[in-house]
Amino acid sequence: MVSRVIPVDPFDLIIFGGTGDLARRKILPALFRRFCAGQMGNGARVIGAARGEMDTEAYRDFVRDSVLEFDDNAECAAKNLDSFLNQISYVTLDARGDAGWSELAGLMMPGRVRAFYFSVGPGLFGDLATRLHEYDMADADTRIVVEKPFGRDLETAKALNAILARHFDEGQIYRIDHYLGKETVQNLMAIRFGNMLFEPLWNSQYIDHIQITVAESGGVGKRGGYYDKAGAMRDMMQNHMMQLLCLIAMEPPAKFDPDAVRDEKLKVIRALDPVPSGDVVRGQYEGTAQLQGYRNEVESRDTQTESFVAIKAQIGNWRWAGTPFYMRTGKRLRDRASEIAVVFKHAPHSIFGMEAGSHRNILTIRLQPNEGIELGVTIKEPGPGGMRLVDVPLDMTFAEALGDDQTDSPDAYERLIMDVVRGDQTLFMRGDEVEAAWRWTDPIIKSWEDKNIAPILYATGSSGPDDALMLMHRDGRRWREIKP
Ligand code: NAP
User: Fold this and answer.
1) Tens-digit pLDDT profile for residues 256-292
2) 438 CA → ligand 1 middle, Å
3) Is pTM, for the whole model, over 0.70?
4) 282 has which bridge partners?
5) What confidence tens digit (pLDDT) does each residue in 401-424 have?
6) Residue finishing a domain among 97, 129, 147
7) Would you say the CB of residue 52 lies under 6 angstroms from ligand 1?
């Protein structure tokens, strides 16, 4: 089966912060891969902009190095990199001043989609939005893309939304959460809403609980300065984890269209019960003989920032009352492994007796590494000797059926950037969703700050603090093993 590349009209993508880490590691390699797939033809242009003094040639060298470092398709690079670079240029520009803006405005071409990627800190969003208008660069076809963190609490998120709303309609603002661009995350919606099989079972009557784990084995590394001001709750829980929870828990939207989907996600966030303090665990990793602990890495001996958080969340609505959602995320854990596990209830009566053991179905959506979806089903162990049961995984990504080009499917940034160009906001967060998510997480963070609660230390390479294990044990449940 050949993957379909839907052509897009010529577009201009202007990357503010075009020399930054995100541009280098994610945005530019993603664009190159779309170029290789034939989706960036027809005179599409990419313009990098930042304060650093350099000409277009020097920027093309920067882009070449980024692509060669972060894209592993050497064959494509050998064939296409020079042509790709011909579509790239650079403008030296200061978001906070007037330098460079007239030059950028002079490059704009009428009659094509124009997307401005704000790959800079949120402190510059207002300056960029204002200048785009002052220099008459924004029209009805203009889109802006903004990255996380979208605020650090409800108040700052509201302020950011207000700044952007001064110059752009909500339909022009693309708040990116790259988790939503993952193939399996979208497949989750296809499996839920494209089949008759699951939806009737998708409720508290049949589902015992849901686990969402986003585990990293690395520490904060070079991001310590940013991370220590955020912590796991702001960096992961408020955005990525809550978005995953929404897709699992939402009602079927009437249509797969941006507002229909986002309305349903918003309802889920609004239905979340406030979290009692006993249902949250926060932790901070200790060092080993070889690796520094969190405090040393961020160079702050008394920092109270959490590098791990686990929450038992309850959704107060008809579908989910009584089915807890256990979520955990952290750094320096046993492995880099992220998954959603939908754990179904036991069959009401076992006709096979005690010896057959205790079995139940688990639908696992693996996000990284090795994206894929698996349904654990119980079957008879082959061979003579009575009715012994065994759980086997049913691979629901069907790589074989769909062919090898499955592995070539675009990564999250590729897909999301192309969605911006096409004007499809389905996989982007709406302003009210972001605010609702902060409204839920703010009281949790505030209670830590008010009570000055220190995170619990946990060992590097573990599954997090023991208290997080207890969060499930006390309910007679257990976390799945963290493994790739
Ligand atoms: P970064 O490495 O610090 O890069 C910042 C970029 O902005 C540089 O190109 C910088 O170039 C430019 N810049 C700074 N001040 C400017 C100004 N006044 N006018 C014009 N350009 C200016 O940051 P980053 O890691 O790429 O992150 C960018 C945004 O994405 C941030 O909001 C970050 O939170 C978010 N994000 C990053 C990652 C990641 O993996 N890196 C992941 C998720 C979200 P000059 O200094 O030369 O101007």
Assistant:
1) 999 999 999 999 999 999 999 999 999 999 999 999 9
2) 23
3) yes
4) 309
5) 776 554 566 789 999 999 999 999
6) 147
7) yes
